[in-house]
Amino acid sequence: MTLLETEHVAVSALRRGTPPRRRARGRAGYWFVAAYALLLLAFGIVPTAYSFYLAFTNDQGQFTGLNQFVKVVRDYRFGPAFGHMLVYLLLWLAALVVLVVLVAVILRSRVRPGTSALFRFLYYIPGALAGVASVLVWLFMLDPDVSPVSWLLKSMGMQTFAAVLAPSNLPLILMLIAFWTGAGGWMVVMYGALNNIPDEVIEAARMDGAGPWRTAWHIQIPMIRQWIVYMTIMAFATGTQLFVEPQLLQTASLGRVSPTWSPNQLAYVYAFQQGDFNGAAAISVVLLAVGLLAAGLLVARSNLFRLDES
């Protein structure tokens, strides 16, 4: 019997020995993957490809090279929009990474097992609100006339709603809204990642004389580093798509906030106010390139997809 025939017989024997329930689960997995692939193709790959087509053509469908990109970059609103997004991202990512990991570590080490579920539920509640609802809640919180913390706003020199929504305050305000709605879910994720660390590892660190903070810094955080990087990539991608929050603030402030404060708002103006879908597609492609570049750097520097050797 040849080697190929022997391998074929072995594979056939393994297949015959596979329990029917396991084979059914395997087929179900293929169906789930197929459904996801179909949705990804319909709502991800095809729209992205169409955006690339629009970005490199004009309204007549003629190929124009980089002309659309040159046009939008030269727009006086392009630089400020991306500058606002950069400041917002720096504040948002710094607050998210530091505070989420800190709270998750404290929750893992200080809170009793019976009450941790209650804290995780409370952290997750703000994330259950849609983006529009969260902005409406914060509009109430930021108006000195009705806010429950009006004394704090007024002590900071913000006597009116217009003063609160001053351009210099917007990155911080948007960061607070994003943190309030998004951080709780990530705290639950980080808490779950910390729970996957074997208790023997933590106990060994304690026996070596490591206190809670040294254990967190040298043991727990390095062991959940890949989850932290994943959170950073997802938060960065979400931050580049900033639209709903500044758009609603612009409406509520009666035009005091710029309608092109973020790149997505600028793309919206290009598409639905100026009728320039090609320019809007060029802005979206630039945002995609920024997100892919940042994700690639984080993945390369962190070895996110490295498989641990057994």
Question: How do the SSEs run, as a string of H and E?
Answer: HHHHHHHHHHHHHHH
Report mean pLDDT, rounded to a whole number: 83
The assigned structural class equals mainly alpha
What's the end-to-end separation, in Å? 34 Å
Write down the Rg: 25 Å
Q: What is the helix content?
A: over 70%
The backbone outline, from C-alpha atoms, is globular
> How many strands in all?
0
Poorly predicted tracts of residues:
1-7
Percentage of β-strand residues: under 5%
Task: Tell me the major beta sheet.
Answer: none
Counting DSSP H or I runs of 4 or more residues, the number of helices is 15
List keywords for this structure.
75% helix, 310 residues, 15 helices
Describe the structure.
There is one protein chain. With 310 residues, this protein is mainly alpha-helical. Helix content is 75%, strand content 0%. It has 15 helices and no strands. The chain has helices at residues 3-17, 20-55, 67-74, 78-110, 113-124, 131-142, 150-155, 161-164, 170-195, 199-207, 212-223, 225-240, 244-252, 263-272, 277-302. Helix 4 (78-110) packs antiparallel against helix 12 (225-240). The longest helix is centred in the first third of the chain and has 36 residues, at 20-55. Residues 1-7 have low confidence and may be disordered.
